[in-house]
Amino acid sequence: MTSTNGLKCLSSQTGFSEELIGSAYDRDFSALLQLWSGSPVQHAALFEGVVGPSADSDCYRTAARRTTERLAAEAGVGPNSRVLDVGCGSGETATYLARRLGCAVVGVDLSVRQIEHAAARGARLSVEFRQASATSLPFSNGEFTHVISMDTLYHVLDKPRAYAEMRRVLCDAGTLALTDFLRPANVVSPGVQAGIYNRLMFNGGDSVLDYQASLVNSGFEIRLARDISLDLRRSYLVLARIARERLELIDRLELRRSMRSYVKACMDIQAAIGRREFGWGMFVVERAHDLEAL
Known about the structure:
The structure is a single chain. The chain is an alpha/beta fold. Helix content is 43%, strand content 18%. The chain has helices at 18-27, 29-35, 57-75, 92-101, 112-121, 159-169, 190-197, 208-217, 229-247, 253-274; strands at 82-86, 104-109, 127-131, 144-150, 170-182, 220-227, 279-287. Strands 3-2-1-4-5-7-6 form a seven-stranded mixed beta sheet, with helices on both faces. Helix 9 (229-247) runs antiparallel to helix 10.
């Protein structure tokens, strides 16, 4: 979620390609490291209350960790779990789960640079990382007890295929747990489309209800579906604050431009959430039984 790029290319009729998305995250990784002092945080945060003026990067890390903890708890991830992290980014979630819960974790992502960073981050833990697509997972049927994805699937163009792949690699009654950005309204202003959805390389998107319907149609049973957009608004408030502070420390002109662009995007997203033109949801679903197997 924290790509700081100012993409100039808009989506075509077929959407943003995996090649474009992977290369954009590769290109922007230096700015991401700068934003987070070398240890990136790449998903939104559950602040659970008013965000005060002193909220900083440490506060954000704590709140983002709360998102991971809440999602893992709702999904029932434990020491004996086999977890696949789809869209693992630089390995923050995967390494946290392996270190905190002692479970085996595999992370996949499109970005080569992020996978390399994640591998170094996960050294000496029961975790591994591979470059792979959510629509073509290089794993056997039923290999995992849990699939987790945090703020990633909005990038996926062929969402039914991704849901089918995640269902395939889950064991019977396995659990898919995710957070993702939402598109609450079918029609948004041109400025929001260009400045937020296109900038984020957003391929499609659903409301909370439509997201649930898509998961059910893909062979999952809903256990939890929650609109957490208010916390997304709080997240971008703090992210803008962090980026402004980092801006004062950056000497490279290119990075300064990128960080300024990111600050503006954070402010635009806050406003769009307030108008119900952008959102965030949490979902925990269980792999439904195959009818032919009953």
